[in-house]
Write a structure and sequence with these properties.
alkylated DNA binding; Alkylbase_DNA_Glycosylase/TA; about 290 residues; two-stranded antiparallel sheet; Endonuclease III, domain 1; five-stranded antiparallel β-sheet
């Protein structure tokens, strides 16, 4: 199988895992894994077809290796994946809390996959459910309908299917995945749009709101201002970090107003380097539609 390689020397401090960790959809994600040797593997359905990318930090820089029809595309694009187009310096602030987080996050960048559909589907699966429920559905559907990732990868790695495959998944397979009909219909409906060309118009799709669009744009196009309004945890963490107490969506938007243009970056900093409020009460248990 054809193998393509490239060595890229980042012109800035870079923490690879911190930058791409938002792409990892829970333990056992078939499209991404962290190898024991420190390398990071991702499978993607590129404009040129399925491909696998391995990223490994070396003493000289970051070495990327690609396999499959989409391997060369992934090699060309991986600096953007690692934040080459991101500019943390655009966040200018005198806020002591945010300033302290930016000092801790010197190697953190906002990634950009360039694949809108592959960010949109898991975001829809994560709508209004606990993470374990969404990750379970993602694992099941990729293992059933994603093709094996090309290259010398673990046998369980799969390439996320393109839209036409998602549109053909039968209803009983969604049920077995644990995804209820609402999320199934939203993903099926989204196949009617060329999402790669219209990442800024996702909310015209039925069932896709501000939260889903923000989660998608942050990963796919590196939108540093994307704010996922409607999340259960994020407003609480942003409030706890910035003012010492949880807030709701309106309170979060008010706190983020001084950072217009970089609000999504501040959210990411809070989630990664900020303070989480003390948990009270019982955790929400994942639902399981498979036995209904």
């Amino acid at each position: 199988m054809t193998e393509a390689t490239r060595l890229w020397v980042p012109p800035f401090p870079l923490e690879i895992r911190a930058t791409v960790d938002c792409l990892h959809r829970g333990s056992g994600d078939p499209s991404m894994r962290y190898a024991p040797d420190g390398s990071i593997w991702r499978a993607s359905h590129t404009p040129d077809g399925p491909g696998t990318l391995r990223l490994q930090a070396t003493s000289d820089g970051v070495r990327g290796t690609g396999w499959g029809p989409g391997g060369s595309w992934l090699i060309d694009q991986f600096p953007e994946l690692l934040g080459a187009l991101d500019d943390p310096g655009e966040l200018r602030t005198d806020d002591p809390v945010v300033h302290a987080m930016t000092r801790r996050a010197t190697g953190f960048r906002i990634c950009r996959t360039g694949r809108v559909w592959e960010a949109l589907v898991p975001a829809i699966l994560e709508q209004k459910v606990v993470g374990t429920e969404a990750f379970r559905a993602w694992r099941y559907l990729l293992r059933r309908f994603g093709e094996p990732a090309p290259g010398p990868v673990a046998g369980s790695m799969r390439v996320p299917p393109p839209p036409q495959v998602w549109a053909r998944i039968p209803s009983w397979e969604w049920h077995r995945a644990g995804a209820e009909p609402v999320r199934m219909r939203t993903i099926r409906g989204a196949t009617s749009m060329d999402t790669e060309r219209h990442p800024g118009k996702l909310t015209v799709l039925r069932g896709v709101g501000q939260w889903t669009e923000a989660e998608t744009r942050m990963r796919a196009v590196g939108d540093a201002d994307a704010v996922p309004v409607g999340d259960f945890h994020i407003p609480k963490v942003v409030g706890q970090t910035l003012v010492g107490s949880p807030v709701d969506d309106d309170g979060m938007l008010e706190l983020l107003e001084p950072f217009a243009g970089q609000r999504g970056r501040v959210v990411r900093l809070c989630m990664r380097y900020g303070s989480w409020p003390q948990r009270k009460g019982h955790r929400v248990a994942p639902r399981d539609y498979r036995s209904i």
